[in-house]
Amino acid sequence: MTVCPECQGSVSVPDDVMAAEIVVCGECSSELEVVAVAPAVLALAPEVEEDWGE
Asked: In this structure, what DSSP letter does residue 46 have?
C-alpha cells in the first residue's frame, strides 16, 4: 500500500509493479504513474495530449 498524491488515500500496488506503470486510485479514480518501486512511489500520470500532426 502507498499514498495517493491527489487525495492522500491508500492505493494498493502489486508486488510485481514496474516503474512507469499506471495504477488507478480506488478512492478518487486518478491515474497514477509508478515513479519508483522500492518502496513504491506514485505521481499523477501525465495527460496525453494530441499534437494534431504539428
From this structure: P
